[in-house]
Design brief:
The chain is mostly helical. 89% of the residues lie in helices and 0% in strands. The protein is rod-shaped and about 105 Å long.
Length: 199
């Protein structure tokens, strides 16, 4: 092996290894970034569902225009969030699908409940069947919002676990790549040094 070839080997091989390391890191960091973005979106959905749960209770206890408008705005905000997020994991997809279904059911129940409250009949004139239907709607609303809260908490936990897994994987790639580069550099230096100093 000529000196020129040895110098080329010393420079090209480590450069290729470092380029590979940088590419692996970029891919890992893009995955981590995407997971972190989904985690933030999941947290926003979770906070929105908690607020919707509170607004649902407020409207049930004090049915008036202001809590109704707050509920509608919060519902639209959550709708936007759950329409813009997507997952690859089957369990996360299932939970998001459950959240979307419950979200639609809650809206339908809420619209029916507001129609009952806004009907021109006085409380005394309401039929017993209407009152029991109203109570059933209230119960469904609370059950569905509680189910949404549970699903968003579970979704957030899964996403956080995925984030930790990707961070550990990225750390492992960095450490193992650094060790591999160091070992290869030592081997190359040893081989080149031995051939240069050999009598």
């Amino acid at each position: 092996m000529t000196i020129k070839r040895k110098i080329l080997t010393i420079t090209i091989l480590p450069s290729a290894l470092i380029a590979g390391l940088v590419l692996a890191l970029l891919l890992s960091y893009s995955t981590v970034y995407e997971t972190m973005r989904k985690d933030r979106m999941g947290e926003k959905i979770q906070q929105g569902v908690f607020q919707l749960n509170i607004l649902t209770s407020n409207y049930i206890m004090y049915p008036s225009e202001r809590p109704k408008q707050q509920w509608v705005l919060q519902h639209k905000s959550i709708q936007h969030l759950i329409n813009t997020i997507s997952f690859q994991n089957d369990e996360e997809k299932r939970l998001l699908s459950n959240i979307r279904d419950k979200h639609r059911e809650i809206n339908a129940d809420f619209q029916e409940l507001t129609a009952i409250y806004e009907s021109p009949e006085s409380v005394q004139d309401k039929q017993q069947s209407t009152i029991s239907y109203e109570e059933r709607l209230k119960g469904q609303l609370l059950i569905h919002t509680d189910a949404m809260v549970s699903d968003t908490v579970r979704l957030s936990d899964l996403n956080y676990a995925s984030l930790l897994k990707h961070l550990r994987k990225t750390s492992l790639i960095v450490i193992s790549s650094f060790i591999a580069v160091m070992i290869i550099m030592l081997i190359i230096s040893y081989i080149v040094g031995r051939s240069i100093f050999r009598p």
